[in-house]
User: Fold this.
Amino acid sequence: MKTTSKILLIMVAVALVASSDVVFSCQGKMKWRFMPREEALKYVAMVEARDRAAGVLEEPEPPPALLEAWYKYYENPVLRVGPPGAFDEKSIDCQTIGWYGNQYIMWFIGTTWGLRCEMGVATSPDGTTWTKYEGNPVLRIGPSGAWDDAILICQSVLFDDQEQLYKMWYVGASAKAGFGIGYATSADGFHWTKYAGNPVLTVSQAWEYSDMEGQTVLKTPGGYKMWYGSYSIETEECKLGYAWSPDGVNWTKYPWNPVFSPNPGHWDGYSVDTPDVHFVDGVYHMWYKGWNDPNGVGWIGHATSADGVYWTRDPQNPLVFTAPAKSEWDSYEVYRPRVMLASGMPDNRAMLNKMWFSGRNYSLRARVGLAIEFGKAAPAQDAEARERFPNLLQNRLQVDPVVVSRRRTNIGYFTPWAGRVTVSILDAGGRKVRALVDEYALPGIYERNWDHRSDDGRPVPSGAYYVEIRAKARLLTKEFVIER
Assistant:
């Protein structure tokens, strides 16, 4: 059966369920997306019970990874779920950040235990300490029969200096109409009016899937530009499209969409989603979520473009990894990056780039965290280390031995998992001559030097040797030759 036919059958089935029982997800890979509410609640309870049964991992203090351009804030998450009964009691994610009136303003999606998703707002003097607005939620799902009566998520907000007006583009959906992007305006960022002609953008091109989401909008002298995700509810596939508008309401899609697609065989080889685009010094910068397996974890990467259509991936990708242990708040996926560059923050004396991102654990509970980038580029040795491993994947070990001299071999290796890692040197007969590494490690790139000595301190003879790395029941070996 074709994908389109399956989606239509799903939509018809959902439409037969009373609107009060329909559940749409806020974001991500969750099977309860189109389940009736009673079934969805049971499914989520099962997932959470399974996670609790797995127990909390006990790890020693891990060593720092060699390479990480973005550093997560030590007191993450910076925005947490609300108390029982609040509109955000289960999860908060899909945030948009801005600097307005000498304060940060964050618009975010809150989810109840009943799996109802609506929009709230919070303010902060520093981007780390947030106060939620007492009048939350500030934007609710529509009344029964409206195009957005089942879900309201994934906003992009900007302040129009010319019109002195906050403008928002958000994702809405109903069982009958499916997904689309709506438009709303506000004089203060807290009280919003939805556009009467919503939705302003819907699925219409052959490449697009069932769901439009994760959009980001820029206002330029020539009008508005939007980059958006088109997401398959059935397969979890996603690609990015591009559109423009003279007024933010009437949109024209780029005829040769998608403009950004998965990169097969790489960490973002299955799907790309939730773009955040900035235009700086004549270059478009995009931060985005990518994953290489429909059930795999999501990381954050970066790409650049001269025109917003043809994109080049950053050789330093991926930039932000998931947390190391299942018990941590962002262990399953990091997504929805929202970046504020140092040049756009008047209070930023240290010239730090800041990224707020959504994180989700294996219990499907999301929160918002902060990451910081020092300077414009990684140190030279870090860039050189990344060049050794240009294609990082979430499910593949990598190792690269480089014989530097007669007395030293540099062993570079990458592990995508958190846990015990061992690196050993074997002789040509497969016998272990040196245990080089045996430690707990976070996902990342590492380097260790071997002094061409065995475990007992004796120099080894010239010849062929193997470096062997083990992590998460995986094994990888690579041959190299040393000369005395």
